[in-house]
User: Fold this.
Amino acid sequence: MTALASRGALRPLLAVLVSVLFAAPLYLALVNVFKPADAIRTQPLAPPLSDFTTANVTNAAQLSVVQSGLKTSLIITVGALLLMVPLSAMVAYYISRADTRVARLLMLFLLFGLMLPPQVVLIPTTVILRHLHLMFTYWGVILNFAAYYLPFAVFVYAGFLRSVSRELDEAGAIDGASSFKVFWRIIFPLMRPATASVVVIVALWTWNDFLSPLIILGAAHGVTITTGIYLAIGAYSIDYGQEFGVMLLASLPVLALFLLLQRHFVSGLTAGGTKG
Amino acid sequence: MARVELSGVTKDFSDGVRAVDELSLEIEDGEFVVLVGPSGCGKTTALRMIAGLESVTDGVISIDGRVVNDVPSAKRDVAMVFQNYALYPHMTVFENMAFGLQQRRMPKREIEAHVVEIARLLELEPYLKRKPRALSGGQRQRVAMGRAIVRHPSVFLMDEPLSNLDAKLRVQMRAEIRALQRELGVTTVYVTHDQVEAMTMGDRVAVLRGGILQQIAPPDEVYRHPANVFVAGFIGSPAMNLLEATSSAGSLNVAGLSLDVPQYAHLPGDRHYAVGIRPESITLVPEGIAARVIYTEDLGAEVIVHFLLDAPALDTAELSEVEEVEDDAVLTRLGVGGDGARVVARLPASTSVSVDERVEIALDRDKLHVFDRESGVAVERRGESALVA
Assistant:
């Protein structure tokens, strides 16, 4: 009884501690981005009350490394998503509907891909990309991300497709639609909640990745926003105000994407199509 | 319009289960055939094979003389109404109905005209812009029908389309579907496990058991002349009563009583049979077969009375699959009644009997059915008879 009671009291305390651990950097970034540099140094924890300024953000936005970094990150993220989303949805559709050994093996193969850390596959990936003459190109980075996150997306889609009645496929087939049309006109639109999850998560991972663009794209051939932040840090002195401004600008697009798609997380889109 | 023909059609699933076994059916142009049977009898599998949603292991399916075994669903010119409707949830009622026509590359104006015409027929016009989730069960069912009708297919296939509706709506839709099918004259194959649907809707009823066709005939013939013990027990509610009987010199010994039944006078002596009698062919008489009332169901217009006779109960594998006979078994397990043959009678509402009352009953000899005890097959009738005690 006592042990249970103490465990009951410990749980909220642990939750608060973990929350603080995650919220602290966010709080620091948010309060300091709107303060002048000297206030950041002297009172890093205080909120920007009397000395509120947006200069850090406007200064950061004028940096060429930020401008080109945002552009490159946008191209790479959108490119990877445009390639990966339909492809992974189609693979998942095949896996979930075809009751064959090939489909099961394919799923196992893709699950194996989920277990590999990105650092492990980075060197072999560069070798392949070099052979394809895609090193130091946008296409190289896009293909790398699309391929690396494909198993994850397939896994999400395949799980979601279990809840989509096969009768819809059959109704489409009887209505005269080809397999591709059944997928594209009937099944894929119903996968919107899963697509929203995949887009938000993969966009976040792609946007935030540092190592792959650094190696595949190479600093000389362009910077993403993450490699841009790295380049913006001076060797001998650090302008914290500007750094926080860059970080805010780097986070805004992903935050906006999440806010845009969050309503699609709410499933229930399939309600009404079949009984129950 | 088309003629559908199944010839020795067999379906084996990969797990070794034979769902349909050498099914042969000839469905005439414009005919409404109902496939009926208990769960797992292969009726839905048979329908799905006609639709092209299941491959055929053996045999031939042809539509309008064209063998369609290897023809994809899209090219069979069939339309199907699914048990769960299978409406496209992200499309409006209009888009749901138009989808099939769009696949046939029909011009937009024609599509609109077709959809509006059918929507009007089904009283769906006010709902054309709604999504399926904003419709009631009955309206969704109508949309599913509309989607099938709008394409003017050669064959309608319906897989228990009314099973998700409440009892009142089911009765209404039953009549509507039948009237619509008559108006359109489209060949229809309708699957149900509900024998009332089968009896009221079909031009002919095909009864299946374990993937094997038991009988195909017009509803009244299936009811009046069941081909075997299974059909006798399955069709009719309450089910036909089945009793052990032996033959001896032109008469039948049933429940301890020797009955002269001229139409079965040709039966050889000393053989075991199963005798069937419908609940409405039993009456209460001053002197007849002794019976004890074990259960009554007052339905207002009539009373269903369950009796226990001092005679052995008939127990066959065929009957164990029939739901209503199963209900009797449940009553036995619950301790209602006791050992012996159970008989159900449909009596007039004025009948006044109480549980445990001892009465005498009579069986209408004209309406007796005799089945071979081993094979379960109906024995041929000859001549006529009269009511006996």
Summary: Chain B touches chain A at residues 51-53, 72-75, 78-80, 82-90, 99-100, 103-104, 131-135, 137, 140, 147, 151, 164 (CB under 8 Å). Residues 385-389 of chain B have pLDDT under 50 and may be disordered. The longest helix of chain B spans residues 167-184.
